[in-house]
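Readers of this paper often ask what the protein records in our data store actually look like. Such a record has a labelled line for the sequence and another for the backbone structure tokens. Nothing more is needed to write down the fold, since each code stands for a local backbone conformation. The record that follows is passed on verbatim for readers who wish to inspect the format.
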Amino acid sequence: MLKHGAKGLCSVKPNSDYIRVGQELVDPKQVAVPKGHLAVYVGEKKDDTCRIVVPVMFFNHPLFAELLREAEMVYGYNHSGGIQIPCRVSEFENVKSRIAATGGDGNCRGELSWRQNYY
């Protein structure tokens, strides 16, 4: 059930040559990223990711920086395509919520790790 709900957050990747069964065509106007935001691809497997749009200011937050460091360890700097975050969508949504709770200002308020609740 949770997996089905998380899949609802996904959309077809831009320039993709296929559409998953049960998904509708994506209007190119909906693919555009709003000003002040960036699209990232979230998923543990390279071929099964969800496109999620996040505010640019999240990239300055220590928790998001930790996600980016993990992505660099997994994919390196020569990764082609968009920014891919190697974690479950539910974990990413948890990080987004925690960042939003701090106002996205980079103040972690003592939080040590984005994964601290999963170990």
The mean pLDDT is 75.
